[in-house]
């Protein structure tokens, strides 16, 4: 059968995997699919390959929590030969879908799922070509021809009817490689396999920071079990002065994995198009953040946790966040960490959820997609109030990571310093950085660190950071902006916020990271016109309109929206 449509998936990591799954499961063969991946392996992407993990890094989700693929993790593990499982210390008879696993092994699982989907595509006669070791360096849109050209680093060029950008994480280097001892990210973690005999500054306390900490610790000491089978840490003889100093907003550590009552509750949480449209009509054309907070968080407690609902039903979003944050702020971070570890262990043992944390993850996921419809006033509230809490509570640190961090802290090797929003590093030409911040007592501090690692997580990249410069220069894409509901509020904010501007239409807008996209992840030009040829699924470039990254759940949900738009079009 003659192929009528040529589709390119740019990036073969987890997002490319779920996008490919949607196309295969459509059962259609009236298009062809070409997949471009810059590494030598499909499926793993950055987080689950050597670009983002060493042997010591593990997943923060278990098999039962991930969206459905061809086979379950538990089924796949049982098919592996001993020589693959042994290095990862996995016993297939004791493994189940409720266990986390080494990230590098999970990457192999995702690669295997890609292979199975390719076999399914072959079986139905879907034409698929896979190009490994091929990096896309530019994308050019041709509206007159209704095609898209991609350019590769080897200078070859190809044209397609559609391009779906699934390039995943990106960690731009600003000072790394120019300033000795300065790292713009902890990735690839192999670069942190070094010995030092001085304190190391780590910016952030997210899962990204924990990745860096686990690697650094192993090369400057050793984890052991004491006589009571408790994990302890001992410094290496030539690393006596080694210490890790975490600089964390408000001095808080992330929450810990617990039992989820419904691992797939996220799927049912997204507001329908009709609900969004109705609320916008009732709210001067904007989706109300308070409406989303009530419907996708507070109301979910009404039937299942009525006693908790009675406590929070009259609380505003700000009041709720204040209550939770105050409880955390007034606790010594590692004591709270230990207490939450015990609580999480009980949750897993009794198979009882810590329900408010589970539903906070649901809220985060639910507001991600319609966030572009918030007013700028609500987006500022979201950024200032809710996102800091969400970033802490839904990180879900795996138990083994918690145990290592507590062992490091008890050994006097890991400490955390609370910094305010003014915390900032100053790279030094001689190496490392000076970290400046105002402490909890309002005193300005400045400390020099010979080694500095930025571990705040995937940055929300700006419109100008898009690596496909033709899209920017030809104005195929446009910066993401959100309008103020009240012009008076915008006029006040413009004086204190350099991200606010007044445009030619006399309205005020908040500039948010990345490019503008619609609900189907189609890119929008400066006139807000959708582009039916180009879809953007790479999270670093859509952080303004999609403020929360939800891992594989995000991949599944975004791929569904893209495939609905792509395959519902007339392919003739």
Lay out the secondary structure.
Elements: E1 6-10, H1 14-25, E2 32-37, H2 73-77, H3 82-85, H4 103-124, E3 127-132, E4 136-142, E5 147-152, E6 157-160, E7 162-165, E8 182-183, E9 199-203, H5 207-218, E10 221-225, E11 231-235, E12 243-249, H6 273-281, H7 289-295, H8 301-304, H9 306-312, H10 317-329, H11 333-350, H12 355-368, H13 376-393, H14 399-410, E13 414-419, E14 424-427, E15 433-438, E16 444-449, E17 451-454, H15 469-473, E18 479-483, H16 487-493, E19 500-502, E20 508-515, E21 522-524, E22 530-536, H17 551-567
Parallel strand pairs: 1-2, 1-7, 2-3, 7-22, 8-17, 9-12, 9-17, 12-13
Antiparallel strand pairs: 4-5, 5-6, 10-11, 14-15, 15-16, 18-20, 19-20, 21-22
Helix pairs in contact: 1-4, 1-17, 5-14, 10-13, 11-14
Describe the fold and architecture.
With 572 residues, the protein is an alpha/beta fold. Helices cover 33% and strands 20% of the residues. β14 (424-427) and β15 form a beta hairpin. The longest helix is centred in the N-terminal third of the chain and has 22 residues, at 103-124.
Fill in the keyword field for this structure.
572 residues; FAD/NAD(P)-binding domain; alpha/beta; 17 helices; five-stranded parallel beta sheet; globular; 4 domains; six-stranded mixed beta sheet
């Amino acid at each position: 059968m003659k192929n009528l449509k040529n589709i390119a998936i740019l990036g073969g990591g987890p997002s490319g995997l779920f996008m490919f799954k949607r196309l295969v499961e459509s059962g259609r063969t009236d298009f062809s699919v070409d997949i471009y991946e810059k590494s030598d392996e499909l499926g793993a992407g950055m987080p689950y390959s050597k670009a983002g993990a060493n042997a010591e890094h593990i997943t923060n989700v278990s098999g039962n929590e991930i969206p459905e693929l061809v086979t379950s993790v538990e089924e796949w593990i049982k098919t592996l030969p001993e020589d693959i499982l042994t290095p990862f210390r996995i016993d297939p008879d004791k493994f189940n879908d409720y266990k986390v696993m080494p990230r590098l092994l999970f990457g192999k699982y995702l690669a295997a799922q890609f292979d199975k989907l390719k076999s399914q595509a072959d079986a139905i006669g879907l034409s698929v070509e896979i190009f490994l070791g091929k990096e896309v360096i530019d994308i050019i849109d041709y509206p007159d021809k209704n095609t898209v050209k991609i350019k590769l680093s080897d200078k070859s060029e190809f044209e397609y009817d559609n391009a779906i950008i699934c390039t995943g994480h990106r960690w731009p280097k600003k000072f790394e490689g120019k300033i000795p001892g300065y790292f713009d990210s902890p990735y690839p973690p192999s670069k942190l396999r070094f010995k030092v005999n001085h304190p190391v500054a780590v910016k952030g306390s997210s899962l990204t920071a924990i990745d860096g900490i686990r690697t650094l610790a192993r090369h400057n000491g050793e984890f052991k079990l004491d006589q009571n089978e408790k994990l302890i840490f001992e410094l290496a003889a030539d690393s006596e002065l080694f210490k890790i100093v975490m600089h964390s907003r408000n001095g808080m550590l992330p929450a810990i994995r617990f039992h989820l009552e419904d691992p797939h509750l996220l799927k049912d949480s997204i507001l329908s198009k009709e609900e969004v449209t109705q609320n916008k009509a009732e709210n001067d054309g904007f989706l109300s953040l308070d409406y989303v907070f009530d419907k996708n968080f507070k109301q979910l407690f009404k039937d299942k946790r009525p006693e908790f609902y009675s406590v929070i039903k009259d609380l505003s979003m700000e009041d709720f966040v204040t209550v939770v944050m105050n409880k955390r702020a007034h606790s010594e971070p590692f004591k709270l960490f230990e207490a939450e570890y015990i609580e999480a262990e009980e949750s897993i043992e009794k198979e009882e959820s810590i329900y408010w944390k589970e539903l906070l993850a649901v809220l985060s996921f639910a507001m991600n997609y319609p966030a572009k419809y918030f007013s700028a006033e609500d987006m500022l509230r979201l950024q200032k109030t809710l996102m800091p809490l969400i970033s802490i509570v839904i990180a879900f640190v795996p138990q083994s990571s918690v145990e290592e961090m507590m062992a490091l802290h008890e050994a006097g090797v890991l400490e955390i310093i609370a910094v305010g929003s003014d915390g900032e590093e100053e790279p030094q030409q001689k190496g490392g950085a000076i970290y400046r911040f105002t402490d909890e007592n309002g005193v300005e501090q400045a400390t020099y660190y010979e080694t500095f690692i930025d571990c705040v997580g995937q940055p929300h990249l700006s419109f100008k950071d898009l690596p496909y410069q033709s899209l920017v220069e030809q104005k195929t894409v446009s910066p993401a902006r959100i309008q103020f509901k009240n012009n008076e509020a915008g006029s006040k904010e413009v004086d204190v916020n350099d991200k606010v501007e007044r445009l030619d239409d006399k309205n005020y807008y908040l500039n948010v990271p990345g490019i503008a996209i619609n609900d189907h992840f189609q890119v929008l030009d400066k006139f807000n016109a959708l582009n039916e040829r180009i879809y953007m699924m790479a999270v670093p470039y859509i952080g303004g309109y999609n403020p929360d990254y939800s891992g594989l759940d995000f991949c599944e949900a975004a791929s569904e929206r893209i495939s609905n738009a792509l395959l519902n079009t007339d392919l003739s």
